[in-house]
Amino acid sequence: MTEEHAEITGGAHLARALRAEGITRVFGIPGTHNLEIFAQLATEGIDIVSPRHEQGAGYMADGAARVTGKVQVVVTTTGPAVFNALTALLQSFTDSVPVLLIGPGMPLTHPGRGNGLLHEVRNQSQAIEAVLGDSHRVTSPGEVSLAVGQALSTMRSGRSRPAYIEIPLDLIEATGPGTLHPSVTRPHPSPEPNAIRSAAEALAASQRPLLIVGAGARAAGVEIEELSTALGAGVILSSNAKGTIDDEFENNLGAIGVLEVLPEMLLAADAVVAIGTELAPSDFWPEPMPLPDTVVRIDVDEVQMLRNARVTHPIPADATDATIALTHQLRQTRSAGLSRAAGEWLRRWHDTITAAGKDEGAPWAALCGGLNDYTTSSTSPVIVAADSTMCCYYGVQTGWRARRGDRFLYPAGAGTLGFGLPAGIGAKLAAPEARVVAIEGDGGAMFTIAELSAAAQAQVSLALIIVDNGGYGEIRNEMADRGDTPAGVALLGPDFPALATSLGARGLHIETQAELAAALREAEEFAGPTLIHITEDSRAATDMLGAFGQRAKSTEEPKSTEERNLT
Q1: Angle subtended by helix axes 80-94 and 124-132, to nearest 10
Q2: Which of 233, 288, 298, 436 is the most exposed place for a label (fewest CB within 10 A)?
Q3: Cα–Cα distance between 408 and 113 in angstroms, integer?
């Protein structure tokens, strides 16, 4: 069904098309070249969330999209603003997150070699296409609606990815007729019965099977637990798959891609079922992954199916449908004795992996303990928006006990810094009933710390934990392990609680696990963000915090030695 529009501006075509597609919120900053867009967004009743930097807008949209699974929209002005957002969109691209970026471009008649126009980029659309792949520069006001329909058709079908629409700035206020073009969504393919039977036959005699589950299987949590039980198989999760199944599920090995023991376990396995995962080195650090001879792979992306593995049994299909079908087939062909034997093999590895996780995550044990206490204090879901920092990938990723329905939002593919806070803001706006905790290192936090002000203005209640080791701790350790003298990694950081207060947030320094759990609960009651500063007990912190003097700490009396220290 189509709807004709009379002569209206390109900005009006955009706002009406977005509203017709169910878009109710846009993240972005008004600028000289996009004022008509923002005027029309307001006219259509679309909420506008104003970050302090376009990269923050991109991360906010990313966080909202991960939580909802729905397309989120970023609107920028021309040139630098578009490229400010592009880093965040690269993160969305590598993690398969549906974020639509919309920005003005140079006028239709702009000279090919440029003339010094404000924010001039001679081929902005092509530059973004090199990163995102999907880029559409419209050529008339009426084409805007078509571009929106086409972009969303792609983003809502198959594997989710970002897209970009560019509207030449002279078309934003120019008028012209147009027609709404509602997006057309292609359903995920259904599993082919012969492929299911073949895979089940290959798995029927397996004695040491494993499931490797990615974020593409988030909707199939119950079904994955049932498949695991039918096989007696251990479940290994990617970073962003935490919360797909309960961490207390007996066969769940967790998000252990960072552990050195993982390759050893994979070498001992005789079959793997990979569901909705890229099997990417950014999630599973052994490269290449030592996979067994039998690899069953379930994925909606037939091209991705061929990456990072030699697949013996490809099943291009929706994760839920394929997992149900495979479990049903295995229950008819696999003996209960083999499943019990596989479970015994798994239990031996479970103890080894638990010990490895505790050893690797020791510097952040109290952080995880406080987060676990907080998680179990209420039945409402917890969303942890993490940064690419040691306390997250060595600590929280393996040490936080997520329940089914909790979320771990992690910038796995591009590994960008500054993701946690703005992604947490977007997640809280999209899921106000959830408890949201962002976690960043002191170095990465400074990339987007200004978004505390945006959260304060929007009265977004969330907690930001900053784990301070005095700089870029991972890079410092890599330099030291090479035999280099660490250079350029120790940072003169701010008084983080005072900085938070200056930006309209609450700020405090805490020192024990009990204080952390209490501070997280208190943050829920504050109409705005709460920054919780802790110092890390690690070799990096020992070296770098001393470089400029220990960060300011609270003046409270020392806590009892019975309380578990964070520092």
Answers
A1: 10
A2: 288
A3: 46
